[in-house]
Amino acid sequence: MPFSELTEALNLLEEQGLRRQRHVLKSSQGARIMVGGMNCLSFSSNDYLGLANHTALIDTLKSAAAQYGVGAGASHLVGGHMAPHHQLEETLARFTGQQAALLFSTGYMANLGIVSALVGRDDEIFADKLNHASLNDAALLSRAKHTRYPHLGLPLLEKRLAASKARRKLVVTDAVFSMDGDIAPVPELLALCERYDALLLLDDAHGFGVLGSTGRGVLEHFGVASSDRIIYMATLGKAAGVFGAFVAGPAEMVDYLVQRARTYMYTTAMPPALAAALSTSLRLIENEAWRQARLRQLIATLKQGLKLERWRLMESITPIQPIIIGTNKETLAVSEALRKRHICVPAIRPPTVPKGEARLRISLSAAHSDADIARLVEALNALERTI
Questions:
Q1: Which domains does the chain have, with CATH numbers?
Q2: Sheet strand arrangement including 320-326
Q3: What's the whole-number mean pLDDT along residues 263-270?
Q4: Which of 54, 76, 81, 238 is catalytic?
Q5: Which of 81, 132, 206, 221 is flagged as catalytic?
Q6: Distance between CA atoms of 190 and 199, rounded to whole angstroms?
Q7: Catalytic option among 105, 134, 164, 178
Q8: Mean pLDDT of all residues in 131-153
Q9: Of 145, 128, 270, the residue nearest 202 (C-alpha)
Q10: Residue 95 to residue 209: CA distance in whole angstroms
Q11: For residues 344 and 33, what is the distance between their CA atoms, to the nearest angstrom?
Q12: What is the pLDDT of residues 245-256, one digit of tens each?
């Protein structure tokens, strides 16, 4: 059989506890979901602000679909750039304090397009070792020299920047690391980029809408002003509750990406009704700061309630609260035991995380109640003693 070797590879993944399974949801996203025929308390979603099922977004979506239809029908450059797209880009630029913004269909496509457009064979990319896969793949696609530095290892990054003879230098990093929940030291990174004449690409997929007093992301969190060295990227399917991604920064950089970012140029624009819903989402994020405050409260409640001895809750001030279990087998067992209690928390295993650091990835949402957190804490404290 032509694919027999794939069957063998799948069997090996099964033996190693690394084979993934999809669980079919039969409900909207939220603190409670219907999955596998079971009602579950969910800590598995990136819907950090509880907006994915918000009635205001649904109403906007319906109204915009009635006016603009379902599909954009073309790429932005050929005839698919519609009024809701344009309005959203202008709103995103204003919201982030940048000169201009550009929509992409996904965060993965945004990173591929940005990096491959801005650097090439004579250039060098400096990447945190724990960056998202999309940034790693973008570096490979660009054909630039790809230099990785240890996670948050700024001293070694500085040495490599100082030694580089590249035409253009680009430092790329997650702003919030998706499996650890820690935050890149943006002011220090920007200082290095200024010292060694480099650009800084920040992937704020998990910080946008969450960090900062008004949810404007990692730049607001650190009080970093707009800089002509910063390329700010964030996704719109997590805290914003809808779909897509954007890049924001200097106007000439955004215009250049319109001309050269292949993942922008050669794909159909996102459905215009989604863009309209995102504009409503941004208004809610801007006007309802209680959502960020609620998240901070829930994070503190979780930390105070967990009394772990063998397992380790990682340091994180974000809604991503990982618990290191260790082995794949035990991590899967804990996740399944939680599922039997109607609590959904995903087991994260290599290669997404390093070998021996399999973990539960708890994702908190402003939609969770204090009782939800208490239920999770009680279950985890009990399971650590029995599994």
A1: 18-47+289-386 (3.90.1150.10), 72-287 (3.40.640.10)
A2: 312-313, 320-326, 358-363, 347-348
A3: 97
A4: 238
A5: 206
A6: 8
A7: 178
A8: 97
A9: 128
A10: 10
A11: 9
A12: 999 999 999 999
Query: Quick one: average pLDDT of 101-110?
Result: 98
Q: Is the pLDDT of residue 332 over 70?
A: yes
Kind and range of the H or E element at 343? Answer: strand 343-344
Whole-angstrom Cα distance, residue 278 to residue 104?
13
Structure confidence at residue 1 (pLDDT): 61
**Count of residues making up the chain:** 387
Given a contact cutoff of 8 angstroms between Cβ atoms, the answer to whether 203 and 230 are in contact is no
CA distance 210 to 205: 10
Structure tokens at 10: 């799948």
- Catalytic (active site) residue 329: no
Cα Rg of the chain, angstroms: 21
Alpha-carbon span 141 to 120, nearest angstrom: 9
Question: pLDDT tens digits, residue range 272-314?
Answer: 999 999 999 999 999 999 999 999 999 999 999 999 999 999 9
Report how far Cα 74 is from the mean position of its chain's Cα atoms.
27
Q: At what angle do helices 370-386 and 290-305 cross, to 10 degrees?
A: 30
Q: 3-state DSSP: the chain helix, strand, coil percent, rounded to 5?
A: 45, 20, 40
Q: In this structure, are residues 115 and 257 in contact, taking their beta carbons and an 8 Å threshold?
A: no
| Residue of 178, 102, 166 whose CA lies nearest to 139 | 166
What gap in Å lies between CA 359 and CA 328, rounded to an integer? 8
Contacts of 149 (CB under 8 A, 6+ apart): 126, 127, 128, 129, 156, 157, 160
178 is catalytic: yes
Question: Position of tokens 């690409």?
Answer: 201
Judged against a pLDDT cut of 90, whether residue 22 lies above it is answered with no
Instruction: Give the CA angle between residues 269, 272, 277 to the nearest 5°.
Output: 125
Angle between helices 272-287 and 55-68 (to 10 degrees): 150
